[in-house]
Amino acid sequence: MSKKILLDKINIEGIKSFDVYRANGGYASVEKALKMAPNDVIEEVKKSGLRGRGGAGFPTGMKWSFLDKKSGRPKYLVCNADESEPGTFKDRYLMEFIPHLLIEGMIVSSFALEANLSFIYVRGEFRWIIKILEQAIAEAKRAGFLGKNILGTGYDLELVVQTGAGAYICGEETALLESLEGKRGLPRIKPPFPAVVGLYGMPTVVNNVESIAVVPWIVLNSGEEYAKVGTAKSAGTKLISACGNINKPGVYEIELGLPVEEFIFSEEYCGGIANGKRMKAVVAGGSSVPILPTELILKTAAGENRLMSYESLSDGGFATGTMLGSGGFIVYDEDQCIVRNTWNFARFYHHESCGQCSPCREGTGWMERILHSIENGHGKMSDIDLLWDVQRKIEGNTICPLGDAAAWPVASAIRHFREEFEWHVMEPKECMNRNYGLREKSIMSIA
Amino acid sequence: MIKVTIDNIEIEVAEGTTIMNAARQVGGKIVPPAMCYYTSLKGSGGKCRACLVKVAQGSAKDPRPMPKLVASCCTNAQDGMVVQNITSPDVVEARRGIVEMLLVNHPLDCPICDQAGECELQNFAFDHGLEKTRSDFHRREFDPIDIGPHIKLHMTRCILCYRCTMVADQLTEERVHGILWRGEKSEISTYIQKAVENDFSGNMIDVCPVGALTDRHFRFRNRVWYLNPMDAHRDCKKCSGKVVLWLRGEEVYRVTGRKDEVGEVKEFICNECRWDHFDVKDWKVEGPREMEKWSVITANKYSDEAVELPDELYSKLNNEKWNEFEGVT
Ligand SMILES: Cc1cc2nc3c(=O)[nH]c(=O)nc-3n(C[C@H](O)[C@H](O)[C@H](O)COP(=O)(O)O)c2cc1C
Ligand code: SF4
Ligand code: SF4
Ligand code: SF4
Ligand code: FES
Question: Which domains are delineated in chain A?
Answer without folding.
Answer: 18-227 (3.40.50.11540), 237-333 (3.10.20.600), 338-446 (1.20.1440.230)
